[in-house]
Amino acid sequence: MTFIRSLRSAVLMLGVSALAMPAGAADPVVVPEQPVFPAQGKITYVPRTSILEYKALSAYQEPDWVTEKFVKTGKLPPVGERLPKEPLVYKTGNMPDGTGVYGDTIRHVIGGRPEGWNYSAGQSQGWGGIDIGMFECLTRTAPLFQVEANDMEPLPNLAKSWKWSEDGHKLTMKLIEGAKWSDGDPFDAEDVMFYWEDNVLDPNVTPLNGATPETFGVGTTLKALDPYTIEWTFKEAFPRQYLFAMAYGTFCPGPSHILKTKHPKYAGTTYDQYKNAFPPEYLNFPVMGAWVPVAYRSDDIVVLRRNPYYWKVDEEGRQLPYLNEAHYKLSTWADRDVQAIAGSGDISNLEQPENFVEALKRAAEDTAPARLAFGPRVIGYNLHLNFSANGWGEPDERGEAVRQLNRNLDFRKAVTMAIDRQKLGDSLVKGPFTAIYPGGLSSGTSFYDRQSTMYYPYDLDEAKALLKKAGLVDTDGDGFVNFPAGTAGGGDVQIVLLITGEYGTDRNLGEGVVGQMERLGLKVVLNTLDGPKRDAAHYGGRFDWSIRRNEQDLTSVVQNTPQLAATGPRTSWHHRAGTDGTLDLMPFEQELVDIVNKFIASNDSAERADLMKQYQKVATTNLDSIGLTEYPGALIVNKRFSNIPQGTPIFMFNWAEDSIMRERLYVAADKQGDYELYPEQLPGKPGDGGPAE
Ligand code: GLA
Ligand code: CA
Question: What is the pLDDT of residue 16?
Fold first, then answer.
């Protein structure tokens, strides 16, 4: 055999054998089909324009007691003068039960605690819908769950209309004209510009939900043309995507007339003083939302009363909201389910599978006070491995060594193949609820494509072999693999897993992962923190691994899209800029960034669908994050409420508290409860001790 011939046959053989070889044990396969779990409550899809409009009506109404006690006594101007020229009008045809009547209360239970009211400076109000109800945003996306897919654009809100320039680089927005904050101060471009310039652009301030300049595109600028007109300038042409970033939670301005009095630029204060200037005890904080906080008792309750200046009405001219009061009882998330089911609370997103069976049993009884309806599988959990090797979170030597492991594909494969997801899901709840979720886009989004979703099946032996391939061996025979000699002293690899202690599900998943990693030979220890501390640690990069419930980037794709990859220094959930401000991306991460940027820039729906298939394949093949489980959630609402849209998912573009449009909810006169704690009272002056009588 000549040299050439032998070479040829060798090449040939190589080719043939490569083709004939069965997929190796460590190769990914298409994820198995999920157990069927039909969503209850069929959504009626509607055109976007059928929900609301802006127009002047011939007359307006308000609750009688407001007229009697406040208008006739000169404490408030007449309702017509409190409303904008053209209020936002909800169309009756889109209201599931039609226009409503005034009265009653919505009783929320939440697991978080208010840090204060300064949303613009990053303070949490305790979640569970309280901030969503207080702060209104330029656009609104939550109700889009009911909008036909070919019509996907955010709804107007504080921005009532917008127009693109011919070249697509400028977007001119008209703000609602003549709307007022809940204390009567005019809302205008000054509020918008204060939020943008002195909060988003100010590097010392990060609003709640993390808006940064890149949230609206690198190089984007904003200016006010007149009190009711603002103009965006983008580097890209027609980046319609950013209209989604102008919705909750990244463009919801605060009251500049109040906030400026404490902001360093205007008041000579420190940034800490600014952030903390409006603690929960500061009542009647001005809002554009439907209800204003008028009472706060620590670890007990926050009470909000109707905003007399709310700028939305029904077609009959009734000023909204219909409900006079909103409660947020300060308890636990698990208690929210219990109370909603028992009837002492009014609403819950049933999102912790540990409560599913009990809740279903009780809801099935005729006497059940609440109805419960499951939606699509949109609640998912991922294990995020910190990919920064250039100092995000300033890790010590051990932490650095873990980051190197996290960046090693064999190591990530070992971790994912050592996770028995069936068992993990069953440990939360038995039955057809949980599904194998390898990571990537949620199976509940319209962009999901199973064939592009790659999965490394559970195989503990293969996982152990991969760990060895990654250079990890148990050199001292204690059952846990060690770092190679010379790295971190050659001791046992120890990984700190960050979780929140606020949810039983997070704790159970954390413990499950620790146990399954122990069988692999990896020592993982939990760092369990409460919500705000966990978020601070996560955003600060102070974690090796972190388990998080998925956010809108994965459940809707069009909301918070930049977070799907490290498209900016502070967008990714597990890879943010290091101490020198740069991102040390691995090649597959750069691929994800390119795909996501193309998606943002594209307005072609076929191309966008295709890009998301590519995203899914690259993300799941390379284990950008490690999926743990995915399951449906159910919306629980007390039966006395009308106007709850059928099939509302508990989470998609936003949480259900936003999607159901609480300002339109009402309780029929014969069903009204006696829950108002401050009947016939309205918010007092900002900073005053309580409501005004
Ligand atoms: C928390 C709850 C969710 C939802 C959101 C709203 O995260 O767990 O169900 O209520 O708050 O922000
Ligand atoms: Ca060891």
Answer: 39
Could you give the count of Cα atoms lying within 13 Å of 424 in the half-sphere of its Cβ?
A: 31
Residues 194 and 326 in one domain: yes
Atom of ligand 1 minimally distant from the CA of 351: 9
Residue 350 has φ and ψ, to the nearest 5°, of -75, 100
CATH of the domain at 483: 3.10.105.10
Instruction: Tell me, yes or no, whether 659 lies in a domain.
Output: yes
Q: Where are the alpha helices (DSSP H) in 186-238?
A: 189-195
Pocket test of ligand 1: the residue of 655, 659, 660 to mutate, having most ligand atoms within 8 Å of its CB, is 655
Q: What is the mean pLDDT of residues 424-446?
A: 96
Is the pTM higher than 0.70? The answer reads: yes
DSSP 492: B
Give nearest CA residue, ligand 1 atom 3. Answer: 128
Nearest protein Cα to ligand 1, atom 11? 128
Q: Which tokens go with 637? A: 């609402």
> Rounded CA gap, 661 and 173, in Å?
23
AA identity, residue 137: C
519 with 418: CB under 8 angstroms?
Answer: yes
Tell me the two tokens of residue 402: 């873990």
Given a contact cutoff of 8 angstroms between Cβ atoms, the answer to whether 577 and 530 are in contact is: no
Nearest CA to ligand 1 atom 6: 128
Please indicate, yes or no, if residue 515 is contained in any of the structural domains.
yes
pLDDT tens digits along 118-171:
999 999 999 999 999 999 999 999 999 999 888 899 999 999 999 999 999 999
Which amino acid would we find at residue 116?
G
Number of domains the chain contains = 2
What radius of gyration, in Å, describes the C-alpha atoms of the chain?
A: 27
Indicate the angle between helix axes 356-363 and 333-342, nearest 10 degrees.
10
The token pair at 398 is 């051990």
Q: How far is CA 112 from CA 69, 299, 533, in A?
A: 35, 10, 12
Task: Kindly state whether residues 250 and 114 are assigned to the same domain.
Answer: yes
C-alpha span between 385 and 628 (Å, rounded): 13
Amino acid at 46: V
Q: Does the structure show a pLDDT above 60 at 354?
A: yes
Q: How far is the CA of 283 from the centre of ligand 1 (A)?
A: 23
- On the question of pLDDT at 315 being above 60, the answer is yes
Q: Tell me the C-alpha distance between 242 and 219, whole Å.
A: 13
Q: Look at residues 215, 559, 242 and name the one whose alpha carbon lies nearest to residue 378.
A: 559
Nearest to 475 by CA among 491, 486, 462: 491
- Helices 409-417 and 460-469 pack at an angle, to 10 degrees, of 160
Sheet strand arrangement including 88-90: 52-54, 88-90, 312-314
